[in-house]
């Protein structure tokens, strides 16, 4: 199970899966929160100032970021826009995020389906590990939120979380897995982090990720 | 197939699956609409007055509740908040509910995947039974809505329904199953109950439930 | 792989799967965007003027429709309301669509699960074909949007896309498939078409469709 201290990854960039336009690449296309070295200039142009980050020397600027730091977490870099979608969009006072995978430094810490008993070398991801990945995916989702509203201090309520768990058909503990996301949001935002939620078990996720988390967040 | 008269469960409480904090319990974590005897004081503190209910003697107070009564239904109790999520959240004039399972008196009436031909002892849930469970899940979702806006009479439109059907891979009748939810909403709200909807077949749902239903509802 | 020029289907109507009310029909129930010959009068009564269309002689009336025409596309007919749900609903300045299948002239161009290597006669749908179907489903979703706001010229932003891909458990290229929808939205709306997105692989979809796409769109 990953250490929580490993879940916040400042801003190292990852290789670009180059999933657009080439049918041969359909199988390795990613989702919103991948870091993307080759498009860093695009990111600097497109994302607000607050989303542009230096290295490990980056300061902690807000109330919520201070709380994240107290949890041993920092917001990871968000991916540059790829294809015709981006990590998050605002409408009115809501932010909708793209589905976020548990990328750490641009790579998935594990792949495969989540199973109830993953100790026997059956190739399944253990539920408690998947819970940690859901926490990572939620952290990536917060980075996506911050990229469009500038500061997480503007968040007034986490409205909705949808958690998809790539599941062995016999695994029915999706809520326990997605608690990894829910608990992080509670720790970070307090009462404002208490949300409505759906957790479902799906056949397979992009890049064979074990979990995917999306948010609807209200901001002021 | 459950009798419609059985689908409305006033307020008996169910055992708490205690799914938080204990990795051993990951497999039995539940979703929003479970009744929860052990946290009834918490519920009384956190939910609005209208959500606090007495026993079978509870009166029918509103226009929509009267319509439910005419359908032989009463709103079930909603679960107390568990972990960092709750049955429903409002933002602006919208209510987002958590995904609701077809709990009746805190227990699932059936578990397993839905299949096209469930008569042969293959362990699958029949589509017509699953349709009744979708109706129950939608009723639980209405209880979740009421818990945050006080009265269903304030509902001006059911905006969106997403219905997840735990499906045998050969079963393609998800819309017919989720019609159980859609038809209830039409019966209860009339034109205001006519909604946009997505129905999908997923690998597995929490607690091995056959269906899960979530709502976005507009209120005044 | 279907030719893009085939993806826009003006308005020929399809047979009604008659999926309501008859438990025997649960297996063939459809989703929002089916054309429906038998209810054309219902459509004319219920949908706004702009949604009522003539045959091939229909004129191109708006900026966005002109752009669609430049792409070789025309908006297909939307289905009449079936059961208690409809192709799209507005709340405030948002449109929520129903999940849209890749119907062309009321029929699915292919059925089955999407697989990574579909050349070997294994019955799977090829990823590049599925990408084309996602484009078709997105076009159907635009028709659903137009049916409730009268003109796509009113769209100010595509906020969110959720793409469900019926997936062989070994297929992990869902983002590449849903790029078919994302790229269409970018081509049609430019910057306003750049959205947040989730792509997931599900066990099975209604009518054994390979993809299903839903939208949240902001309009003025």
From TrEMBL, chains A, B, C:
Residues covered by the Endoribonuclease L-PSP/chorismate mutase-like domain: 65-218
Transmembrane regions: none
Gene3D superfamilies: RutC-like
Composition skew (Basic residues), residue ranges: 36-45
A Pfam family reported for this protein in Swiss-Prot or TrEMBL: YjgF_endoribonc
Xref: CDD domains: YjgF_YER057c_UK114_like_1 (cd02199)
Region (Disordered): 1-60
Name the UniProt record assigns to this protein: RidA family protein
Organism, scientific name: Schumannella soli
């Amino acid at each position: 199970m990953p250490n929580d201290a490993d879940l916040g990854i400042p801003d190292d960039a990852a290789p670009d899966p180059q999933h657009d336009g080439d049918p041969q690449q359909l199988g390795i296309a990613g989702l919103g929160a991948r870091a993307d070295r080759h498009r860093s200039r695009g990111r600097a142009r497109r994302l607000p100032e607050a989303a542009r980050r230096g290295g490990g020397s980056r300061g902690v600027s807000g109330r919520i970021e201070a709380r994240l730091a107290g949890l041993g977490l920092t917001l990871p870099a968000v991916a540059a826009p790829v294809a015709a979608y981006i990590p998050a969009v605002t409408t009115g006072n809501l932010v909708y995020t793209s589905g976020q995978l548990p990328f750490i430094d641009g790579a998935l810490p594990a792949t495969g389906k989540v199973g109830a008993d993953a100790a026997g070398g059956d190739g399944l991801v253990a539920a408690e590990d998947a819970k940690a990945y859901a926490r990572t995916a939620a952290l990536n989702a917060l980075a996506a939120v911050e990229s469009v509203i500038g500061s997480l201090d503007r968040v007034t309520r986490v409205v909705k979380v949808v958690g998809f768990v790539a599941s062995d058909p016999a695994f029915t503990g999706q809520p326990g897995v997605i608690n990894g996301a829910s608990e992080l949001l509670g720790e970070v935002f307090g009462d404002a982090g208490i949300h409505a939620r759906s957790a479902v078990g799906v056949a397979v996720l992009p890049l064979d990720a074990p979990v995917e988390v999306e948010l609807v967040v209200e901001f002021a």
